[in-house]
Amino acid sequence: MSFNFLIGANKTASVLKEFVRNASKKTGGSTKNTSCKVKPKRRGWKVQDGHFVEAGHMLATQRTTRFHPGLNVGFGRNGTLFAMEAGRVVVTCEKFDPNWEHTWVQRLYGGREQQTILKKYFNVIPEPQHQRFKLIDEV
Questions:
Q1: pLDDT of 115-132, one tens digit each?
Q2: Per-residue confidence (pLDDT) for residue 18, from 0 to 100
Q3: Per the domain annotation, does 28 fall within a domain?
Q4: pLDDT tens-place string over residues 89-104
Q5: I need a surface site. Which of 50, 72, 86, 138 has the fewest CB within 10 A?
Q6: What's residue 36's pLDDT?
Q7: Distance in Å from the first CA to the final CA of the chain
Q8: What is the CATH number of the domain that holds 58?
């Protein structure tokens, strides 16, 4: 937007000046809200195969059931696998033989009747106890 003004002491001799008005604010988005990022959930394996765990230790976190509970492993409400006893972690890949009569099996594994379906299982094998004591007498 431009404005024309007549400037001068003498009304007969006037000088024409032009003033240009600029915007007082910049247009565009703000860059001050960069600290509100979503934190990642860090799902997946927490303990590798062969490691020793205590009871209650998390083995894996998941949204969908990628890993299945095996021996001495619990399954949480949110899909978390945890150790129920202290021992060594063993991850196995086992053959899954579903009942093809169920509707949910047909929905999930439809068209895979002739294929071998494998699933990963987390197992916790307890350490063998020591044999340092002998039974001397029974009561």
A1: 999 999 999 999 888 888
A2: 77
A3: no
A4: 999 999 999 999 999 9
A5: 138
A6: 67
A7: 108
A8: 2.40.50.100
Phi, psi of 14 (to 5 degrees): -110, 145
Tokens of 4: 């024309």
Distance CA 3, CA 23 (A): 15
H or E segment to which residue 105 belongs: helix 103-109
95 part of a folded domain: yes
Domain that holds residue 114: 44-125
State the total domains in the chain: 1
Which CA distances in Å does 100 have to 104, 107, 114?
9, 10, 11
Is residue 89 one of the residues assigned to a domain? Answer: yes
Closest CA to 95 of 115, 119, 111, 114: 119
Q: pLDDT at position 22, please?
A: 78
Query: Is 27 contained in some domain?
Result: no
* Contact (Cβ atoms closer than 8 angstroms) between residue 91 and residue 49: yes
Q: Give pLDDT < 70 ranges for the chain.
A: 1-16, 26-36
Verdict on whether the full-model pTM lies above 0.70? no
pLDDT of residue 103: 93
Work out the number of other CB atoms within 10 angstroms of the CB of residue 67.
Answer: 21
